[in-house]
Amino acid sequence: NWNNSAEIVMFGDSHTANGKWNSTINQNPVLKLGWGGYTSEMLVDKISLSVPFKPKYVFILCGGNDIYQDSFTVENTLNNLKLMADTLKNSSITPVFQKLLYQHKNPKFNTTIDSINNALTNYCLKEQIDLLDIGKDMYDSTGLKASLTIDNLHLNKKGYAIWSKAINNYLNSY
Fold it and tell me: 120 forms bridges with which residues in the sheet?
């Protein structure tokens, strides 16, 4: 029962879609808007779905699926993320970006993730948008720790617990 409002929206691709946010984030209800396999370009058209719920924060994580597209560039991914932020800011909603997550034992992918995250960091600093490094406690020399993934890419329950802790810490700071 949403009563057409949700203070928190979790928005993104399969990482977001697979989360059990209402049981792990302390401020309920949490509206989950996640689509497995979606690129940032596909998600630009979906971000407006969060607006009618009048959330205070929309936590955005997407762009990893972009890397597998023939047309991929860091600039295109960043531009899509900027469009999402603009849509939210134009509706007086605070976007909160999250750094994209590494994969386990995929150094080429992880290097590309670093490029996206560096561009996103620079954009967020310039625009004064909060950016959470949700993965910083999930990595070792292999990238995403094997103990936190179900398939070298997607998180397991332990991985989601670390992510949720980062969200809760952020929310508790406001």
Answer: none
DSSP assigned state of 39: -
**Do residues 55 and 8 make contact, with C-beta atoms less than 8 angstroms apart?**
yes
Of all helices (H) and strands (E), which one includes residue 32? strand 30-34
pLDDT in tens, 110-153: 999 999 999 999 999 999 999 999 999 999 999 999 999 999 99
Query: Mapping DSSP to helix (H, G, I), strand (E, B) and coil, where does residue 71 land?
Result: coil
Q: How far apart are CA 32 and CA 20, in angstroms?
A: 9
pLDDT digits (tens, 9 = 90+) for 41-82: 999 999 999 999 999 999 999 999 999 999 999 999 999 999
Place of tokens 């396999």: 37
Residue 135 has which token pair?
A: 């993965």
Question: Can you tell me the distance from the alpha carbon of 77 to that of 120, in angstroms, rounded to the nearest whole number?
Answer: 9
d(CA 133, CA 110): 14
The DSSP output letter for 143 is E
